[in-house]
Design a protein that fits this description.
seven-stranded mixed β-sheet, binds adenosine-5'-diphosphate, 10 helices, alpha+beta, binds magnesium ion
């Protein structure tokens, strides 16, 4: 069988059950944004790892080394944020082709350090090796949260409001501009910056941590078409999503119009927004959103609700069911 027949998630589904009986009751392993490991009577630790490969996740010539260093850590801290946890440290493993200079690596580490300093997250170790051709970077990030308080994908409840913390599709549009070599304007640099320097929503994750009405949470790395589906599988529920409620930036709308792109396709199927996707008890939503807006200067964006049923998304446009071709990013997909 070829890997593309089952995709990245099919592979994970095959390996997970083979290791399940090695898990003790108190450990949460494969299936969420982070594993959850009991640390002491007050705290759990959360651990995640994400890899970025040249030519697959980034084009070396189109991202500065500083942005790349920043982004590699950012995507890992985003998974820490999605559990409502505080980052504690990271490990960096890097395979370096001989075409890369010491100056390049210094700048890469400048970007990595900038984000590490922002969240007081030390680099705790790693591994350095030679690569025959491509630059490959793997990071492990560790965080902590109050015992039993990690926000899981699997805790959604029927009737919850599904919400996101910010605009969707900007990063995917930025990637298209890079890939197609489309000429720079102010709108373009905003979108490309969203792609190259996403900000992990650590503070937002902290805000949701400990709030009982916030049930399920994850970060948006592959596009909501894919990520919400994973949340639904975890929570064993379905969802209705109103496409007109997806938050789209003015830059995305203008650039989509200029290039004949459908901004909804980019918002649903494009990855790497690194916003948080969460589900909230409907009767607390207005109060929570008010508190969120006064803390962060902008509201949460409710996009739909959880319903009983199969883990499927009922996309609606003008109250009518709407079929979405885009399903989100999946390595090895056909
Ligand atoms: P995320 O997008 O949040 O980083 P992924 O979609 O990459 O999560 O992975 C989904 C889940 O599968 C996570 O719990 C992750 O740890 C796990 N996973 C992915 N690849 C592997 C692997 N090769 N071995 C074990 N677990 C894996
Ligand atoms: Mg994630």
């Amino acid at each position: 069988m070829e890997l593309r027949e089952i995709g990245e998630f099919g592979f994970i589904d095959r390996l997970k059950p083979r290791f399940d009986n090695l898990l003790s009751n108190s450990l949460i392993g494969i299936g969420d944004d982070c594993a959850v490991i009991p640390a002491n009577e007050h705290e759990d630790w959360v651990v995640t790892t994400d890899m970025l490969i040249e030519g697959v996740h980034f084009i070396r010539e189109s991202i500065t080394p500083e942005e790349l260093g920043y982004k590699c850590l950012a995507v890992n801290l985003s998974d820490i944020a999605s559990m409502g946890a505080m980052p504690m440290g990271s490990f960096l493993s890097i395979a370096i082709p001989t075409s890369i200079s010491v100056e390049y690596l210094d700048e890469f580490m400048d970007g990595y350090l900038k984000l590490s300093e922002f969240y007081h997250t030390p680099l705790l170790g790693g591994d350095t090796t030679r690569s025959l051709q491509h630059l490959a970077i793997n990071i492990v990030a560790i965080g902590k949260c109050a015992k039993g308080e990690a926000k899981m994908r699997s805790h959604g409840m029927v009737g919850d409001i599904v919400a996101v913390t910010g605009n969707l599709g900007d990063s995917a549009a930025g990637l298209q501009l890079i890939l197609k070599g489309i000429k720079e304007t102010v709108d373009h640099s905003t979108l490309i910056e969203k792609h190259h320097a996403p900000h992990p929503r650590i503070l937002e994750g902290q805000f949701f941590s400990g709030k009982a009405s916030v049930h399920a949470m994850m970060d948006i790395s592959d596009g909501i078409g894919s990520d919400l589906y994973h949340l639904l599988r975890g929570s064993r529920l379905g969802a209705i999503v109103n496409l007109e409620c997806l938050p789209l930036s003015e830059e995305l709308k203008r650039v989509s119009e200029q290039n004949g792109w459908d901004p909804l396709d980019l918002a649903v199927g494009g990855g790497e927004d690194y916003e948080l996707l969460l589900t909230i008890a409907a009767d607390d939503f207005v109060k929570l959103n008010h508190q969120f807006a006064s803390t962060f200067g902008h509201p949460l964006y409710p996009i739909g609700s959880l319903i009983k049923g199969e883990p499927l998304i009922d996309w609606r446009l003008s109250n009518k069911t709407h079929s979405m071709a885009q399903k989100g990013f999946n390595h090895f997909s056909l």
